[in-house]
Amino acid sequence: MATLAVTTPRGAGAQSTGDPVAPPAIKSMGQPPLWQPYTSVVATFGRNNDATGGVELGLYHPRGSPVNALFGLAAEGYLFASDGGATGGARLLGVTRAINLGYGVDWDARENNYAFILSFNTAVRRGGLLGRGTQLRVDWIPARGSGLDVGITVPLGQPYAGRTRPRNTGVSLKDVAREVTPHPPTGAASSAYQQAGAAPLPPAADTALRTVREAAQLIAAYSNFFSEHHEPDTKKDVEKIRADAQRIRDSMAVTSPEFPEGRSFLASERAYNASLKRAFAIALRDTTLGAIAAAALALGCSRTC
């Protein structure tokens, strides 16, 4: 933080005279849609009729909570190409997306009969087979030669399908270190940067940082009572956890200038955020820049910690 104070432009005064920085706009995703249209392109293999493949159009409606995906209904219509000309049909399926299965009745318009159908849909990988929530689809109709219909299902009118989670779940420690390691400036600012490391913090900033440390320890304790340092005896380990829990509970009622209403979880969060902003504001000699620096630090920790 001493580095930040040295390299701050001279125009920054004790208080910022400009307007505060507006936070970025956040667009709500809303609730999962109750009606979810989709289309599928399939090729048929091993049927006892001459169908070769075609296009399917469907509409899925969850029954109950759309989040748990335990059960829903789907209606589909399809148009297939065949050696004898085009043929179509319709389907009514019960769907359990939690296990990627659909099951129901298929009606073939040309043959004018009904048959049981079992459908399996899976994204194969995060975000979808080809991205955008696309899925591999495999349909089995035993009464029509036990062949398989294989294709790809594409969601329609669902802009967030396949986009809510990153595809890559691994993190390279080398990449993280390369991104967060600060690089000393060169040229005229080099000497100022070197001197900044030896510059002592103002007493007020040091006090604010001590409050940050205390509040962080309280937040960690409230989040998880279990310690990585265990006693060799299970009974003693349980007693230690109980003693720690009692100590933290007793400390909740202790007040101080930084914790005027006690050391509750909410109060610890408030003290942590306020003291972190205060420490940066003192180092940068600007309250607005201090708030921006604290927010940047919190964002960086949420991405890498």
Short characterization:
The protein is of the alpha+beta class and 305 residues long.
Low-confidence runs of at least 5 consecutive residues = 1-18
Strand order of the largest sheet: 1-2-3-4-5-6-7-8
Q: In CATH, what is the class of the largest domain?
A: Mainly Beta
- Mean pLDDT score: 81
CATH architecture call of the largest domain: Beta Barrel
Gross morphology is elongated
Helix content estimate: 25-40%
CATH fold topology of the largest domain = Lipocalin
Domain unit count: 2
- Compressed to H and E, one letter per element, the order equals HEEEEEEEEHHHHHH
Q: Helix count, per DSSP?
A: 7
Secondary-structure-based class equals alpha+beta
Radius of gyration: 31 Å
For the largest beta-sheet, the strand count, sense and barrel status come to: 8 strands, antiparallel, barrel
Approximately what portion of the residues adopt beta-strand conformation?
15-25%
